[in-house]
Design goal:
The chain is of the alpha+beta class. It has a domain at 3-116: Sandwich (Jelly Rolls), CATH 2.60.120.10. The chain has helices at residues 10-18, 78-83, 104-114, 120-144, 147-157, 161-164, 167-174, 178-189; strands spanning 24-28, 33-35, 43-49, 52-57, 63-69, 74-75, 90-93, 97-103. It has a four-stranded antiparallel beta sheet. A four-stranded antiparallel beta sheet has the order 2-7-4-5. A hairpin with a 5-residue loop joins strand 4 and strand 5. The radius of gyration is 18 Å and the shape is globular.
Length: 191
């Protein structure tokens, strides 16, 4: 939520740094869980190095990747984190990853402290509108675009993902099978 926006809002950077004594740096191997579906989100994470995915298991038992997070991204199961309800998804590292984690209660303290800042509303509106725009673009693309178009969008907007993320996770994220993704990649290679 905060780490990506520290440069844009200097007051936020100062407050984040004030909370450094509550931040824990974790070095994790690939395939480690930060949060399990059904658990309560007790931490906010900032990715210093590495990659994390958010996924859920569908009613049919399929693993569905919802989002990828990389250096500079902040993450948690926000509904679980903010409302103290069970998480709808799991957070898992995809490669050796370093995260900074801060306990929920300290993030809530930080938000309380931010309320006294004149730029508080600007910060919150910017952060939440930025995320909302991103998720709406993905949602609209998922409804409107073909799998080929969704893959092309992914390559255009985040070209590093295919080099860092296993094909079956990308296929899951795009809502297709790994075989279908292989066909798409072959088609693009033949252009």
């Amino acid at each position: 939520m905060f780490i990506r926006y520290k440069d844009k809002f200097p007051g936020l950077a100062t407050l984040w740094d004030e909370y450094s004594c509550f931040q824990e740096r974790l070095e994790l191997s690939a395939k480690q869980l930060l949060l399990k579906e059904g658990s309560h989100a007790r931490y906010y994470y900032a990715v210093e190095k590495g990659a994390v995915r958010a996924f859920l298991i569908s009613a049919s038992g399929e693993d569905k990747t919802v989002q990828f997070f990389f250096e500079g991204d902040g993450l948690s199961s926000f509904e679980s984190f903010m409302r103290e309800v069970p998480s709808a998804f799991t957070l898992e590292t995809l490669e050796p990853t370093v995260v900074i984690r801060i306990p929920r209660e300290k993030v809530m303290d930080l938000l309380s402290q931010l309320r006294s800042s004149p730029e508080y509303m600007d910060i919150l509106l910017y952060i939440f509108s930025d995320r909302q725009i991103h998720y709406m673009q993905e949602f609209v693309s998922f409804l409107r675009d073909s799998p080929l178009q969704r893959y092309e969008n992914l390559i255009r907007e985040r070209s590093f993902i295919p080099q860092r993320v296993a094909q079956h996770y990308i296929a899951s994220y795009l809502g297709i099978s790994a075989v279908h993704l292989s066909r798409i990649k072959a088609k693009l290679a033949g252009r």
